[in-house]
Amino acid sequence: SNQKIRSSKNSRYFCSLHYIMFSKKKKEDDPAVLHPSQNDDSRVVVIPIDESQHAETAFDWYLKNQRKPNDKVKLVHCAELEQPSGAYYPDYAVPPEAWQDQIEKSKDRVHKLMEKYEKKMKDSKVSGSVYSEMGRAGECVCKVADKSNANLIIMGSRGLGMVRRTVMGSCSEYVLHHSKVPVTIIPKEDPNKYI
Predict the structure, then answer these.
(1) SS3 of 175, please?
(2) Strand ranges in 1-124 using DSSP code E only, listed in sequence order
(3) How many C-beta neighbours within 10 Å does residue 43 have?
(4) Which InterPro entries does its entry note (predicted)?
């Protein structure tokens, strides 16, 4: 009789434990827990911007062809500080005031660019943010996409000539080969096509 009571208690304990484990497993396996972003219609879309027409074409293409109501758009400008004019050699001693002047000019350009795209987003009623990051363009775009858990990158192609592409490389090619998410590249020639 004591053995039956003990056995009954053990089976109740086992059943309770099994229920807890099963419930926990179900909760962890629930797609809503593993992939919360897939249960609503929201996406994070990263669009690199600069002062070129290529960037504007990519943004406009997104509005016309890819926009969804719950999208969060991150417009990012990846800034690289160029050497002041006159600094022809890597070891050339550039005066501090020349660097300061270059920094101020760069800040002014970036500020105007931010204002322009903030207005475009507001006018288009797009939800998201516009900001600037320092770094090489291709690496910077991939880093921002990783940090923001992006679902998609849309960017313009500069359409560099063969010589310039060989010497400089291509930001869009870098992103295409290093991105962990789908990349849509919009050629300037025909914005209705994409690769």
Answers:
(1) helix
(2) 44-48, 72-79
(3) 15
(4) Rossmann-like_a/b/a_fold, Universal_stress_UspA, UspA
Q: Please state, in angstroms and rounded to a whole number, the distance separating the CA atoms of residues 62 and 151.
A: 14
- Nearest of 192, 155, 121, 150 to residue 47 by alpha carbon: 155
C-beta separation of 57 from 158 below 8 A: no
Q: What's the CA dihedral at 163, 168, 170, 175 to 10 degrees?
A: 160
Q: From the CB of residue 179, how many other CB atoms can be counted at a distance below 10 Å?
A: 19
Residue 149 is classified by DSSP as T
Name the 3-class secondary structure at 60.
Answer: helix
- Between CA 195 and CA 187 the distance in angstroms is 8
pLDDT, one tens digit per residue, over 117-157 is 999 999 999 999 998 988 888 999 999 999 999 999 999 88
Where in 72-147 does DSSP place strands (E)?
72-79, 128-134
pTM: 0.67
pLDDT digits 0-9 by tens, 39-70 = 468 999 999 999 888 899 999 999 999 999 99
pLDDT band at 165 (very low <50, low <70, confident <90, very high): very low
φ, ψ of residue 152 to 5 degrees: the values are -160, 145
Please tell me the chain's helix, strand, coil percentages from 3-state DSSP, rounded to the nearest 5.
Answer: 55, 15, 30
Terminal-to-terminal C-alpha distance of the chain: 77
